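ok new one. same drill as before - structure tokens go in, u give me an amino acid for every spot. 62 of them this time. try not to just spam alanines like last time pls lmao
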């Protein structure tokens, strides 16, 4: 996708995640969606910090 769209998606997923605290039944969905957007940005820019965040988010979703 277009990088600006990916960045916007990341921002929106972070906002949604802020409203889904630990224990929320759909928190894992927000964690997964944010991970997917960060992965898309990593694939375009190869910034390792994005990949590190993806790994942490996936662990949090378990």
């Amino acid at each position: 996708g277009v990088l600006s769209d990916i960045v916007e998606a990341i921002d929106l997923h972070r906002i949604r995640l802020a409203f889904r605290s630990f224990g929320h039944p759909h928190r894992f969905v927000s964690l997964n969606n944010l991970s997917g957007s960060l992965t898309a940005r990593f694939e375009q820019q190869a910034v390792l910090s994005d990949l590190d965040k993806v790994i942490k988010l996936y662990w949090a979703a378990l």
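Residues 3-61 form one domain. and btw The chain has three helices and no strands.
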